[in-house]
Write a structure and sequence with these properties.
Blueprint: H1 7-29, H2 38-50, H3 65-78, H4 84-110, H5 113-126, H6 137-151, H7 158-176, H8 180-196, H9 201-222, H10 231-251, H11 260-283, H12 288-300, H13 302-305, H14 316-332, H15 334-339, H16 341-365, H17 370-376, H18 395-406, H19 418-423, H20 426-443, H21 454-483, E1 485-486, E2 496-497, H22 499-515, E3 518-522, H23 527-532, H24 545-548, H25 551-562, E4 567-572, H26 573-580, H27 586-595, E5 596-602, E6 605-610
Helix pairs in contact: 1-4, 1-5, 1-21, 4-5, 4-6, 4-20, 5-20, 5-21, 6-7, 7-8, 7-11, 8-9, 8-18, 9-10, 10-14, 10-18, 16-17, 16-20, 18-20
Length: 619
């Protein structure tokens, strides 16, 4: 079955799997709408950026300019207006691209089409959080992280190695200037990994010290506002997991050695990209202070404004302690373990196979990433240890391991879809680990038990099975899509929802169009601006503006609303209570109730119009 070794066949398999996943993704992403509407918030900020408004000064956003330049490029190239249909098609492309890149990483690391196909299935499933928040910067971040892993597999020689590290610097800048925390976590893992692979021993020691120091101090520093809550236990899990991986990476014999030229190339790639994006923003009118404040300073207050409970699974801290203890034991006894044939040929490969299978099972048991973050992370260091005598640790394996662990920190302070985005890199790492173990176990079999055609048959069976599973999901979501009612609102003609939900949105849109020339929603359901084709009072818009905006910013928004001839307020009590997390918003609501009166109730929405003679100013 040598035909399976053909590059054309492998490309065909990748295209077929991605096309089938595309059908799943299409029917899935166009048959759900999350009522908290992060989608509308990101859409309205992207639209205003494309219109020429200045980030942070005229547009409220927690995200960086790289994401908005990406959005500008997409809509400029496609000539598509910012709409729900266009946003979701772009998200589908990003989802599929990130999935394919993770599969490519596994293939380049293992040369196994079967493992790449398995990775395709599980990563696509893990990234399905995109369907609840289409257009969110997290999908762009997932694409960048996946691209970084593939770039790390490029040749690391003198010239090509510098190109590789420069490309990693570019990706790091794009990520940092999209979500600053994710960029900081990638910077940490990339810097430590590059130093651990230095051609100079003292720099490898510096890398170990930096990795161990970061593991000990970054999680508690990051979570300092909530160390009295269960967040400290989650921080302990990440700390012990990072320590384990750093110790193993430092103790392992490595294949690649980087020099100062490689480091300089990474710095140039990062600096040039960051400078270009900063200049683009400043050309639009953004000041340097505005960029720093919007990207860094305002985000420092987020943990005190909005946070959730820690994503802590049962006994996770004990699992982390066990993983750390085994990592220390392996590092201490590494030479003795590697010299013993039975341990080398059977126990370690079996442990790597078991770990890979367990990680995939954990993803099946909980697709949100909860179990992976708590139970897989403490043993992710297994991908770093060699499964056969003479093998050396490679740069891509070390980077996917350390990045998979540092990105687990992004779940603080909001453990929502961040759990999936913070854990999906553990899936390609697990696939690599599984491949190592299976290859070593097969190599250890007696010659008489090795069936020559078995690997090719297993590959063919796996690819067919993954395609069939994608097809089954496609049929399931296609039936759901067909059963739902078309939303048929401007820019959302592809979107279908349960009939009752679709009718609610259609009714509130009709009521707004009949009664209002502008409106504010509490909380910010910004998709309504697109569906009613109504302009917002200001370009400062978000979801939970009741807590994120200062009183002065709230007052300015409401005063600009009151200046319209037919201003309205759309109030959703249940959503507002969910967003504010028990915080007091009575002052805001007292003002709204004083100057606006309810005229319609559609589902959970209240439509309020301005009372006759209302002053329109907040006390």
């Amino acid at each position: 079955m040598k035909i399976l070794d053909s590059l054309l066949v492998k490309m065909l398999a990748a295209c077929l799997l991605t096309a089938q996943a595309g059908f799943v993704g299409y029917y899935r992403i166009f048959s759900v709408f999350a009522d908290y509407d992060d989608e509308g918030y990101v859409m309205i900020s992207a639209r205003d950026f494309i219109r020429g408004h200045v980030l942070y000064q005229e547009i409220y956003t927690q995200y960086g300019p790289a994401f908005y330049v990406w959005k500008w490029l997409v809509h400029t190239i496609t000539q598509a207006p910012v709409s729900h249909d266009a946003t979701r098609l772009t998200s589908l492309f990003t989802w599929l691209a990130a999935t394919l890149l993770c599969s490519l990483f596994v293939y380049r690391a293992t040369r196994s089409l079967a493992l790449a196909a398995i990775t395709h299935l599980f990563v696509f499933r893990a990234l399905a959080f995109i369907t609840n928040e289409p257009g969110h910067p997290q999908e762009f971040c997932a694409l960048l992280l996946s691209a970084a892993m593939v770039v790390a597999t490029l040749p690391a020689g003198a010239t090509r190695g510098r190109l590789m590290t420069a490309s990693l610097g570019v990706i790091l800048a794009l990520l940092a200037l999209t979500k600053i925390n994710l960029g900081a976590f990638l910077l940490l893992s990339l810097a430590v990994t590059l130093l651990l692979f230095s051609d100079r021993r003292w720099l490898r020691i510096v890398g170990f010290a930096a990795g161990a120091g970061a593991a000990l101090f970054v999680p508690p520093f990051l979570m300092r506002a909530h160390l009295s809550s269960p967040w400290w236990l989650y921080g302990l899990v990440v700390t012990l997991s990072l320590l384990s991986a750093t110790v193993i990476a430092f103790a392992s014999r490595k294949e690649t050695a980087f020099d100062f030229g490689h480091y300089a190339a990474a710095v140039v790639g990062f600096g040039a990209t960051a400078l270009l994006l900063a200049l683009l923003c400043m050309a639009q009118g953004l000041s340097g202070y505005g960029l720093l404040h919007g990207l860094i300073v305002q985000n420092l207050t987020l943990p005190s404004v909005f946070f959730t409970i820690a994503p802590l699974a049962e006994k996770a801290h004990l699992v982390a302690c066990a993983g750390f203890s085994l990592a220390l034991l392996y590092a201490w006894q590494r030479r003795r373990i590697e010299s013993r044939g039975r341990l080398r040929e059977h126990l370690i490969p079996a442990a790597k196979v078991l770990f890979g299978l367990v990680v995939f099972y954990l993803n099946v048991a909980n697709v949100s990433g909860l179990y992976s973050l708590n139970y897989a992370a403490p043993f992710l260091w297994l991908v770093l240890i060699p499964a056969a005598a003479g093998e050396r640790l490679t740069f891509p394996r070390a980077l996917v391991c350390l990045t998979g662990l540092t990105e687990a920190l992004q779940v603080y302070p909001i453990a929502g879809s961040q759990m999936s985005n913070g854990s999906f890199l553990m899936l390609p790492a697990a696939a690599v680990c599984l491949g190592d173990g299976l290859t070593a176990l097969r190599r250890g079999l007696p010659a008489g038990l090795r069936i020559r055609w078995a690997p090719a048959a297993a590959t063919l069976l796996t690819v067919v099975l993954v395609f069939a599973l994608h097809a089954r999901q496609s049929n399931r979501f296609e039936r759901r899509y067909a059963a739902y009612a078309p939303l048929n609102l401007p820019g959302a003609h592809r979107l279908r929802l349960p009939a009752k939900i679709a009718a609610t949105y259609q009714s509130i849109v009709s009521e707004i169009k009949a009664s209002c020339d502008s409106f504010v929603s509490i909380p910010g359901v910004n998709s309504l601006y697109f569906w009613t084709q109504t302009e917002a009072p200001t370009s400062f818009n978000t979801t939970t503006w009741m807590t994120l905006f200062s009183e002065e910013q709230q007052r300015a928004m409401l005063e600009k609303l009151a200046a319209h001839d037919r201003p309205c307020v759309v109030y959703h009590a249940k959503l507002a209570e969910w967003w504010v997390l028990g915080r007091d918003m009575s002052k805001l609501m007292n003002y709204v109730r004083r100057d606006y009166q309810e005229v319609r109730r559609v589902g959970d929405f209240e439509l309020m119009v301005k009372r006759d003679g209302a002053a329109g100013k907040q006390d």
